[in-house]
Every structure is written in structure tokens, then in C-alpha cells.
Amino acid sequence: MAENKQIQISSDPVKARYDKLEILKDMGRNPFEVTTSDRDTTCAEISERFDELENNTVIIAGRVMSKRGKGKVTFLDVHDLTGKMQVFAKRDDLGEDEYAILKRWDIGDIVEVKGFVFKTQMGEVSVHAQQVKLLSKSLQPLPEKYHGLTNTDLRYRQRYTDLIMNPEAKETFIKRSKIISTIRRFLDEQGFMEVETPMLVSNAGGAAARPFFTHFNALDEDLKLRISLELYLKRLIVGGLEKVYEIGRVFRNEGVDTRHNPEFTLMELYQAYTDYNGMMDLTERMFRHIAKEVTGSEQVTYGEHVIDFSKPFERITMVDAVKKYAEVDWNEVKNTAEAKAIADKLHVEYEDRHEKGDILSLIFEEYVEQHLIQPTFVMDHPIEISPLTKKKPTNPDYVERFEMFINGWEMCNAYSELNDPIDQRERFKAQEALLAQGDDEANTTDEDFLNALEIGMPPTGGIGYGIDRLAMIMTNSPAIRDVILFPTMKSLDK
């Protein structure tokens, strides 16, 4: 191999890669100057279409993940997004100089191979290399092949390495992408229109959550990152866009655990001229469709459970659920004092500011949620925890709201949306009072939203659910960080 100067390759594995790069540069073969590839076939295509591609010339490109052989013959495993392909390389085919360069390729290098398709004596579909090209030099060694990247913290911080070393991680995010595209197609076919609403807002409402704050220098104004999509989407319902949805990031200044990340992806939709019953029907059809499209089945394994989306989802009121699992008949509870006495007996913690409805919700969380493994709609929540929801005409202490639970997790929240601006103003006042008492998750009054309601909003149903938890279920992932490409992590220098 012709070289303009002698460079001794270091025994240090990282320094050795830089040395090899210097050799290539000295030869005028700097891989980082290559701008494109002539790839015309994927690894999966070759395997799937072997009968028609055998003996045909193809060009593949990907990352070298295995290298073996000696002397005049080298075998490589080249991986692309679709899978892997074995490459058979001989010095006599490539020429002495090109083969010498190939011999110095490292695991992790990104290469292009032109050659003909064949099967080895062992019956493995392969590409017999006729021309090779180094497209990008890997200057950092990958983790050792047989152990892969197993450090969980490092997997989250270096997702790029995780995707290279762990095929199951790549499959998880391919499925996540499919979940989102499936939701879009489903809603588009139902006549919904996808829209976009602001992330930087002066009033972060629509959910019980503490917002993040920022400052907009150009206007010298403090703003918040949105915690929900709700209030802007409802403005569009007022404007006559009768069926709208958005899939976007929201931000909540809360803790991090296996089911919570401070920024996450939310899907919210609103439909005029329907109510929470219509939303239950839509949600059931949507989740069943997503399961079938993404996993190929309406029965999905999550941990030790098989989640069955094929059967009608159970529908139960929160009061009946508490009666069933906590053995408390809430219809017999007359006031907040009695509610707190029951909470004390059940060892359920609460705050002084909590009212009767708040206590019902806390008991539900403690005694009921864990039992709701199969898809279940829990309906008719207390008004105290539902500031944006229409009251039940038959019992104004409760609202037309449901949450859907799977595997003991809240997966979906939906309402018959409150469209009475007078009632909504009173609800905002109650939220302001909670805020004054120290509840930093309470909503504040949104005057422009109230103005929109005064213009007039038709009866409307709405749904919101987190894409991340749905992805956890559909990919059998134990933690939310496993389904977020770049989850929020504490800085290493902290």
C-alpha cells in the first residue's frame, strides 16, 4: 500500500483509530471528505429478494459490526437500519492496496460495499465485494460486542450508542414512530384536522401541573412552557374547526420516575357536537386499532399481563370503583369532615385544603388504580378535581369526565368540555383560591379563553393521552426513559 510517510499505529485503541485516519489522509483518502453514497439496496432487501438478486450486483452501506478472517480473505458484518449483511472480501478481487485499507477498518466504521449477491458454503446470504469505500471513520471504540451497552444510565445519555449496540432499542423506537403515524392516519380518516398551537404561553392551563418559566428578551416578558394543549385547541373549536387534534411536546415541572419525564409527548383532540360518551367510543376504537397496527394483535403482552384490547372496555364510575375495591359507599358520605375521617381510617394522606371530592380521588388512587389492569374507563369524577369539565345534569357534584386505565396506570383523560363561560369563570376563581393556598399546580384565570367561550363553543368532547406511556405498553418497556429517545437526565457535572 502506497503511503507518503510512515505512521506508527498506537497500541492505545482510541489513538490507533486516529493514527489510521492520518494514514488515510496522507494517502488522499480522507473518509470525511466523502459526501454521499451510491447505495441502491438495503440489507433486508437482499435477504428477502435473494432468488431474484442472486449473482446481481448491489451496493450496500452501513456500519461494520463484526470483522473476522485472516490473510487473503476477510468476512465483515455490515448493519443498516433494516438489518445486517455478511460481506465476503478477497485480496485478489479488491487489489492489494484496497484490501490493505479494508484490513485496517475498525468495528464501527461506516462503509460502502459494491459486489454480487451469493450464498456461502454455509448457506448464508452474502455480498461478494468487488469495490469498497470507507464513508466515515469511527474514532471511538464501541462497547464490547457480546455484552453490548448494558449500563442503563449510559444507554439513556448516549442513545446513539444504545441504538447501535442493542437491536431491541432500535425496534422500540421504530414502533414508537409507527404508533404516532398510526394515530395520525386513524384521526385523519375520522375527519380530524391536525393543528399546531403555542409552546410558549403567558398562561399555562389545561392541566393540574407546575409549569417551567422562561423569559422572552424581545418583549421583556416572562412566559411559561405549556403544560397542556387544551385551551388553544378549544379556541379552534370556537372558531369553527369542528374536529382538531395535536401531537406535541408539553412540559411539566415535576419529578422523574418510571412513568414521568418533565417533557413528554401528548395527543389531544376535540370534537364538536359530542360528549364524553362519544369520546369513550372513539378512544376504544383508536387504542384497539393502534394495538393491531403496531403489534399485529389486539392482545398485547406487558410484563406478566396480557392486555386485551379486543374485548369491550369496562366502564365504571369512580364512586362504584371505590365501593368495589375500597368497600366505601361514597354516596353515604355527607361532607368533607366525614370524607377525611374515612381517609384517616384507610390511612390515606391528604392536605387541609382538600374537599370531599379530593378525598374520593385520593382513595381511588390508593385503593383502586392497581386493580385496573385491563382497559377500563373510570367515569364521573368529582367536580373539585375537574375545573374544565361539564357538570353532570343529574348530580352537579360530579362531572362528565373519564380516565382510561391500563396496567394500573392512567392512560387517557377525557371530558364533556365545559362551554359555560359563567361557570368556567367561577371554576377559575376556585383554582386561584387553591393557588393562593399553596397549590402550585392549580390553574389561573385565562381571560382570552373566557372571551372565546363567551363568543360561543358548541357541546364538545375532548381526549388527551401521553404517547410515551402508550409506547411503553406497546413495546413492553418497563420505564418511560426506554421509549423517549433523549430523556431528561441530571447533568454529569452536577
What does this structure look like?
The protein is an alpha+beta fold and 494 residues long. It folds into 2 domains: 13-136, OB fold (Dihydrolipoamide Acetyltransferase, E2P), CATH 2.40.50.140; 165-313 and 374-482, Bira Bifunctional Protein, Domain 2 (BirA Bifunctional Protein, domain 2, 2-Layer Sandwich), CATH 3.30.930. 34% of the residues lie in helices and 27% in strands. The protein is built from 16 helices and 19 strands. The strands form 4 sheets. Strands 6, 10, 11, 14, 15, 16, 17, 18 and 19 form a 9-stranded mixed beta sheet that branches. Strands 1-2-3-5-4 form a 5-stranded mixed β-barrel. Strands 7-9-8 form a 3-stranded antiparallel beta sheet, with no helix packed on it.
What's the short story on this structure?
The protein has 494 residues and is of the alpha+beta class.
**How many strands, which pairing sense, and closed or not: the largest β-sheet?**
9 strands, mixed
What would you say the CATH architecture of the largest domain is? 2-Layer Sandwich
- As for the CATH topology of the largest domain, it is BirA Bifunctional Protein, domain 2
- Compute the number of helices: 16
On the 0 to 100 scale, the average pLDDT is 95
**Unreliable spans:** none
The outline comes out as elongated
- Decide which structural class fits the backbone: alpha+beta
Task: Please state roughly what percent of the residues sit in beta strands, choosing from under 5%, 5-15%, 15-25%, 25-35%, 35-45% or over 45%.
Answer: 25-35%
- Cα-atom radius of gyration: 29 Å
How many independent structural domains? 2
